[in-house]
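With this grant's support, we have paired protein sequences with backbone structure tokens. One protein thus recorded is set out beneath this paragraph:

_____
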Amino acid sequence: MLSNNKGLFVTAMMLALVGGSAGAAQPQSAGAPASMASDTPVPLGASYAVGGVSYTPADPVSYDEVGYAGESTDGSQSGATANGEAFMPAAITAAHKTLPLPSYVEVTALDSGRTILVRVNDRGPMRGDQLIALSPGAASQLGVSGQAVIPVRVRRVNPPEQERAALRGQGRAAERLETPAALLRVLRTKLPAVSHAAATPARAVAATKPKPAPAATRPVAAPRPGADFDQAPPPPRIATQSAKPAPKPVQATAPAAPTRAGGYIVQVGAFSSQARAETVAKSIGARAEAGGGLWRVRLGPYPTQQAAQAGVRFAAAKGFENARIMANDAR
């Protein structure tokens, strides 16, 4: 009888040890959720400088800005975001210079009116002409993948926990209602014109430099493609000053043709994707032209700026409020 009790005691001890070891193994699996995205804590971080410009993180109650966005994969180089989360290209996330990490914003594409909910979990973009940097997943949902210039509105929001959880889990929140056309027109007027303004003066300088060249030596202008546009103003002056036989044929062929064909065009937009540019051009009866590393959608040509205004109004009626008049020889 005693031996039987002893056997039962030993068996009970062995079961207790097995149960204890099994229980001790359970906390190891609890470490996995720690690597998941979390909305707490929300550190602001210290001020920092990029390219000589200082940025101070802040926690504004309301944030609503208009500017340009970029598509970034910088986080994949380090494998982590500024708040310590793993960088996931497919997640609907973004980088911002000063908003708390994380924050939630609604990003509206001003070209289409489409609006999506995005989780801000990184610092950037590290360039002054961009307001926010979208992950590849966010750019795809917004419909702007591959675009070099993305005009957007960024508005901080406080979404319900269900949508927060979806973005934390690398899912997507439902798209918002499209922004009304009237509001888009107002928002587009607030866009900075840095990107386009920087390119326009360069063309203007290039157009003015060749002007004295034809008076000095005409053979230099002949080999250069596009020089016939640049030299259009000088030949008429030479013809009035001296009745030389050589300048007259040049005046009749090169300068006169662009003037009669139309002195101005209306540029509807510029795209990095040829397919996107051709789709837009086809939808409004325009043409897509390559230049400067971009594909430009243009209407025209028109003989005068006043006539080109009709093209601007036509583009606006099609939803392209940023259409602008340019010289016909602008590249």
